[in-house]
């Protein structure tokens, strides 16, 4: 008889581990249960989920209202081809309309964030033809299909560069990354060069159809832009007749404290994509939302896009109860209280640990960028390390956290601190205590400078 460990090994042997060298995918942790902000392995050990899994389980685990809605839909009508309409699809659309920024009136429903961005690409390239170029940014992730990867600036693009060439014409603009400004400048004296340079790119390059941005950079650093950045980009896009696409796959649904991150700057994109939080990951859904300018193009032109699982009834059934939960949590102040406490505690932690070079974020979406030396900002790890598989300091810290019952996703240079929106102050305190201890592993390899931590997120605290 094979043991559980044997079965896990068998599973790993016969499946591809995602974003991993397969020799590191030998014995994944078996998870048996999850409730609220915690999950449990097969030995019954509890872990606090401080990254909301992949920054998607925003309402925590085992939300009964959402589960009941899914079960009801499974019994009633799990699937109907996208050429028909189901009652649940109409309900989901109405719920989404009640949250969307004014002006985004037409939607396409798929089953992932990547597909939502594929939809945005099709809408852009068809409606903006013959212009076809897309501007993205280096600190970005937009998905795993060839088009998602083509838009992506992070290290995962590099080994898949060939796939990128199947989607030509993607160019990368400088990031609004104040901690390591690509222009070597300091805000506000910089005059927001990172936005101004986009205008130069569009005019010099020609044939630019759209710019795609994560309003707050997610995986690649929780980079919050200066307040002028998005109003400036909106103006530049309008003046050049370039579409602005906001990828709110991670930042949507109150992750940053407002329904959508773009709401912080009162900027409405031409196309918005979202996924993850729209169902809190209970079912897979991606949404591409377009304004009238984009949508009207397709009145007399074929919308050359669709999937077997587009408008999937079972998947969409999680949307209305999830949105009702977000509204309830927002109206009762739970989200705001949690994020304020989280921010204060993270700042205190950053003051105590010299390995933290920069602390930044907004709402329930934060990051610590780890450095060897606060003065020189020398990093423990760089982009190439993610590709070559070099040991990462962030992974070492998150490994220590796991040992003590705290799950934190490590990126190559930063830790993803993004718990579910339902996390309580006590659960935050417990998590901070574990993280506090784990960070000493990195502190031991730091060159002491006596310099205070950088707080490049300060402009986010005005809202
Ligand atoms: C900003 C952003 N866009 C797109 C995606 C891709 O979404 P999915 O993994 O659902 O395909 C992600 C995933 O993490 C993301 O963070």
Radius of gyration, Cα only, in angstroms? 22 Å
Query: Could you tell me the number of beta strands?
Result: 16
Q: Which regions have little confidence, pLDDT < 50, spanning 5+ residues?
A: none
CATH superfamily of the largest domain: Type I PLP-dependent aspartate aminotransferase-like (Major domain)
How widely separated are the two ends?
Answer: 59 Å
- Bound ligand species: pyridoxal-5'-phosphate
Number of discrete domains: 2
Q: What is the CATH architecture annotation of the largest domain?
A: 3-Layer(aba) Sandwich
Descriptive terms for the model:
alpha/beta; 16 helices; 16% strand; 7-stranded mixed β-sheet; binds pyridoxal-5'-phosphate; Aspartate Aminotransferase, domain 2; Aspartate Aminotransferase, domain 1; 5-stranded antiparallel β-sheet
């Amino acid at each position: 008889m094979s043991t559980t460990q044997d079965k896990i090994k068998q599973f790993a042997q016969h499946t591809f581990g995602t974003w991993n060298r397969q020799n590191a995918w030998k014995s994944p942790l078996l998870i048996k249960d999850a409730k609220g902000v915690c999950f449990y392995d097969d030995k019954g050990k509890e872990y606090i989920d401080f990254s909301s899994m992949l920054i998607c389980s925003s309402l925590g685990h085992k939300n009964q209202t959402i589960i009941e809605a899914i079960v009801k839909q499974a019994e009633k009508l799990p699937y109907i081809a996208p050429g028909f309409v189901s009652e649940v699809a109409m309900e989901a659309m109405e719920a989404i309309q009640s949250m969307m920024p004014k002006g985004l009136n037409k939607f396409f429903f798929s089953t992932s964030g990547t597909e939502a961005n594929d939809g945005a690409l099709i809408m852009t390239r068809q409606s903006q033809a013959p212009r076809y170029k897309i501007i993205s940014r280096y600190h970005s992730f937009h998905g795993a299909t060839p088009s998602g990867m083509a838009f992506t600036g992070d290290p995962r693009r590099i080994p898949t560069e060939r796939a990128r060439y199947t989607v030509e014409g993607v160019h990368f603009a400088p990031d609004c990354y104040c901690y390591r400004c690509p222009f070597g400048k300091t805000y506000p004296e910089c005059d927001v060069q990172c936005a101004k340079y986009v205008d130069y790119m569009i005019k010099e390059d020609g044939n630019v159809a759209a710019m795609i941005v994560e309003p707050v950079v997610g995986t690649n650093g929780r980079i919050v832009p200066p307040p002028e950045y998005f109003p400036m980009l909106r103006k530049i896009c309008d003046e050049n007749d370039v579409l602005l696409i906001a990828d709110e796959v991670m930042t949507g649904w109150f992750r940053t404290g407002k329904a959508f991150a773009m709401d912080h700057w009162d900027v409405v994109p031409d196309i918005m994509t979202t996924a993850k939080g729209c169902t809190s990951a209970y079912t897979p859904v991606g949404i591409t939302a377009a304004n009238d300018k984009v949508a009207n193009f397709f009145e007399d032109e074929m919308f050359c896009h669709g999937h077997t699982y587009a408008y999937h009834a079972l998947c969409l059934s999680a949307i209305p109860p999830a949105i009702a939960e977000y509204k309830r949590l927002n109206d009762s102040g739970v989200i705001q209280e949690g994020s304020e406490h989280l921010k204060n505690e993270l700042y205190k932690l950053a003051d105590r640990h010299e390995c933290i070079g920069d602390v930044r974020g907004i709402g329930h979406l934060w990051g610590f960028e780890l450095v060897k030396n606060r003065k020189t900002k020398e990093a423990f790890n760089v982009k190439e390390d993610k590709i070559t598989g070099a040991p990462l300091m962030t992974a070492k810290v998150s490994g220590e956290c796991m040992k003590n019952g705290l799950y934190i996703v490590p990126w190559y240079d930063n830790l993803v601190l993004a718990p579910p929106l339902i996390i309580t102050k006590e659960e935050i305190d417990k998590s901070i205590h574990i993280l506090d201890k784990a960070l000493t592993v990195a502190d031991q390899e730091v060159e002491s400078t006596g310099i205070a931590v950088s707080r490049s997120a300060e402009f986010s605290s005005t809202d």
